[in-house]
Amino acid sequence: MDAIWESSYELFTVHRIRVVEAFRGAAVEGEIMEIRQFGGQLGSLEAIYDDRLTFNEGDDLVLFLYDITDRLRPAYLLHSRHSAYYFPPPTMRRTDVLGENHVLESVSDQNSLPLTAGDLKIIAATPIFVEISQTEWKTSEGEAEVRIEVIANHPWSAYSSEEWLTVTRRGDSVRLEAEANATYFERTANVKFVTGDVVETLTATQAARRPLSITVSPITMELRRGALRNITAIVEGLCNPPQTVTWNNVNEKVLCIGCVDVIECC
Q1: Quick one: CA dihedral 112, 116, 118, 123, positive or negative?
Q2: Residue 145 neighbours by CB under 8 Å, 6+ apart
Q3: What's the pTM value of the predicted model, to 2 decimals?
């Protein structure tokens, strides 16, 4: 058991556990895992949380963990009060048989959710799933966003394969935000929705930036002395920021009025 200090200015206690049996998820029997809780002591610094659970070396526990898909970081308890049970109960004698209706003892004395041995069998037998409202998203070259609804029966996470597409979780949904595509090539990103060992993928495709072009109308005109005529220029392409057209007059006898303007983009 170690205490660690993170850049988010939070103090965590990290516990190392050995997996004896995995009822659900990506944990492997015999694996040494790390889980963390808020609070702990590091030197003279101590952070106290009322809901922090006390684990003792040698305890046999059933733990419900939030996410172990990122093995570079310790996992979290799903809930500080409702995520740890003794298995088998400390009061159980070695000669006793643990029946399906036997209620497991919670590590937290404030846990109001009962758990039986039979519940663990149901959890192990129920397939994990994650469903998303769409598996494809196609958008134009400009900035864009879309909301994706998520249905899962197990804690889940989502992440993007590309930096230009960000993922923000909002309850049971995520918001995807695409930056403007400044390149002249179409690009794609994959968003992975992960729960346990189940993965659902959304493919996002963003159009390429349109090449800039200028259309001038009219392209020829006849001018008499003192006459005033208008020329219109239209810039086509990605107008972020707006494009500026500079008029270059090569005839000194023709006066150019208002010849540097921000031109309409279409």
Answers
A1: positive
A2: 175, 176, 177, 178
A3: 0.49
Can you name the residues that pair with 85 across neighbouring β-strands? 62, 106
Tell me the backbone φ, ψ of residue 122, rounded to 5 degrees. Answer: -65, -40
Phi/psi at 120 (5° precision): -65, -35
What span, in angstroms and rounded, lies between the C-alpha atoms of 178 and 27?
34
Terminal-to-terminal C-alpha distance of the chain: 62
Query: Span 56-64, mean pLDDT?
Result: 85
Q: Residue 26 above 90 pLDDT? A: no
What is the distance between the alpha carbons of residues 188 and 160, in angstroms, rounded to a whole number?
11
Copy the structure tokens of residue 264.
């309409």
Residue 154 backbone dihedrals phi, psi, to 5 degrees: -155, 150
Distances in Å between the Cα of 59 and the Cα atoms of 18, 185, 222, 265 are 11, 57, 95, 69
All domains of the chain in start order, with CATH:
1-126 (no CATH), 130-206 (2.60.40.10), 211-266 (no CATH)
